[in-house]
């Protein structure tokens, strides 16, 4: 869409300022707006009237009616209408599709999940599956496609500013992002497609361990490392969307590859089993190597098992190398271990903080665990869709003035 404001600049500034206040506030009066935004009373009342006409605000029962005012003329009260439209956040992972329909404040109304077989995947199947999942979730939320304001899709691939992924030598990125920006343009006026780790960073900044922090890395750390990087409060993207791609770790001593914490835990535990180096009192000795998984290793480490703790220390060394790289290159304050693995990553993080090099010259970043869990990309996709809606709401036909909608 053409996001150029069509209203005069001062008028637009006032509308934007009041809408930004209203989007976060509970019920409020013109006096509240004057105090928060700095408008004259006549301008505040005029802007509140226009935002109400656009359907973004509702006039509430006055202060006297709710028992908050007893003398004189009761103040008019307004409230933002989060139900005025809906957004959709989609986590289009390699083996799953998750769609969440939320209101304009990001409150989830319904979620649908679909398992995808990566071996039978294709761009066309992925497009159809994504559309079907979004459609099913809208029905579950009892909302219509006509109410859809913004869609954000997270994919495990680099994504440029136009929402497209570069060519990959085996076609993987094209399968993961089969031009979703074109797919969903027919669904909503605002469409954003982004890298999954970048949306993890959006989630951490909005709801997680990076609230109030401008310089951090959200490190998706399960099967493979992926990094969403924020510097000076700005998310880094790069020419082709490749900022945060971790194939370079193949050449970093002590890290060696982009494989994440889960396979590293399994490989290190299996190697210890095979070598017979596990302590005699380690419960890991009793685990079948073929059925070993990262959760088992991390649960044992959390319980103090000496063999599992040794594995965690080994994996922590690699995580320390990763954090040191980001700290040296981007001078970040925090590296946030994100995704499902974060829940059990405490022993690895503790070992990594002990092992992080003290030769960085700069203060090393803190390594901390995310609290947002396995749904972090979905959370970030919804937050990004809400951000788009907030930024461009006044330019959308759905929130145009009644006379403008009548002419359309």
Broad structural category: alpha/beta
Largest sheet: 5 strands, mixed
Uncertain runs are none
β-strand percent reads: 15-25%
Number of helices: 13
Query: Helical percent range?
Result: 25-40%
Radius of gyration: 25 Å
Q: What pattern of helices and strands is seen along the backbone?
A: HEHHEEEEEHEHHEHEEEHHHEHEHH
Question: How many beta strands in the DSSP annotation?
Answer: 13
Strand order of the largest sheet: 6-5-4-7-8
Distance between the termini: 16 Å
Mean pLDDT: 94
**What is the 3D form?**
elongated
How would you sum up this structure, described in words?
- With 408 residues, this protein is an alpha/beta fold.
- The protein has helices at residues 9-24, 30-37, 41-53, 123-140, 172-176, 180-183, 196-207, 261-275, 294-302, 306-330, 346-355, 376-392, 402-407; strands at 28-29, 57-60, 77-80, 86-92, 96-103, 108-115, 148-155, 190-195, 216-220, 226-231, 234-235, 334-338, 366-369.
- It has a five-stranded mixed sheet with strand order 6-5-4-7-8, sandwiched between helices. A five-stranded mixed sheet has the order 11-10-9-12-13. The chain has a three-stranded antiparallel sheet with strand order 1-3-2.
- The longest helix has 25 residues, at 306-330.
- The mean pLDDT is 94.
């Amino acid at each position: 869409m053409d996001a150029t404001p069509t209203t005069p600049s001062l008028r637009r500034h006032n509308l934007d300022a009041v809408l930004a206040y209203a989007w976060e506030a509970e019920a409020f009066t013109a006096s509240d707006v004057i105090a928060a935004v700095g408008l004259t009373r006549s301008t505040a009342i005029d802007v509140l009237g226009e935002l109400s006409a656009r359907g973004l605000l509702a006039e509430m029962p006055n202060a006297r009616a709710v028992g908050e005012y007893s003398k004189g003329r009761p103040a008019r009260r307004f409230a933002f209408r989060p139900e005025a439209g809906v957004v959709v956040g989609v986590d289009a992972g390699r083996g799953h599709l998750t769609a969440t329909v939320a209101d304009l404040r990001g409150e989830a109304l319904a979620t649908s999940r679909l398992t995808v077989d990566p071996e039978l995947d294709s761009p066309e199947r992925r497009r159809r599956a994504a559309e079907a999942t979004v459609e099913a979730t809208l029905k579950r939320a009892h909302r219509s496609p006509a109410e859809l304001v913004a869609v954000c899709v997270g994919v495990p691939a680099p994504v440029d500013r136009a929402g497209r992924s570069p060519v990959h030598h085996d076609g993987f990125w094209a399968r993961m992002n089969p031009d979703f920006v074109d797919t969903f343009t027919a669904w909503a006026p605002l469409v954003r497609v982004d890298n999954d780790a970048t949306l993890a960073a959006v989630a951490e900044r909005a709801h997680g361990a990076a609230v109030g922090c401008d310089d951090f890395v959200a490190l998706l750390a399960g099967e493979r490392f992926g990094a969403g990087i924020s510097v000076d409060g700005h998310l880094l993207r790069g020419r082709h969307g490749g900022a945060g791609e971790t194939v370079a770790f193949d050449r970093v001593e002590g890290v060696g590859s982009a494989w994440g914490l889960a396979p590293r835990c399994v490989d290190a535990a299996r190697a210890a089993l095979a070598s017979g180096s596990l302590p005699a009192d380690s419960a890991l000795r009793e685990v079948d190597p073929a059925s070993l998984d990262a959760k088992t290793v991390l649960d044992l480490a959390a319980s103090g098992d000496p063999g599992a703790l040794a594995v965690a220390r080994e994996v922590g060394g690699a995580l320390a190398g990763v954090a040191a790289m980001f700290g040296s290159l981007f001078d970040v304050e925090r590296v946030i271990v994100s995704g499902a693995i974060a829940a059990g990553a405490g022993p690895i993080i503790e070992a990594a903080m002990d092992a992080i090099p003290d030769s960085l010259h700069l203060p090393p970043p803190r390594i901390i665990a995310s609290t947002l869990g396995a749904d972090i990309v979905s959370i970030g996709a919804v937050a990004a869709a809400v951000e788009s809606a907030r930024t461009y709401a006044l330019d959308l036909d759905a929130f145009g003035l009644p006379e403008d909608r009548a002419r359309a």
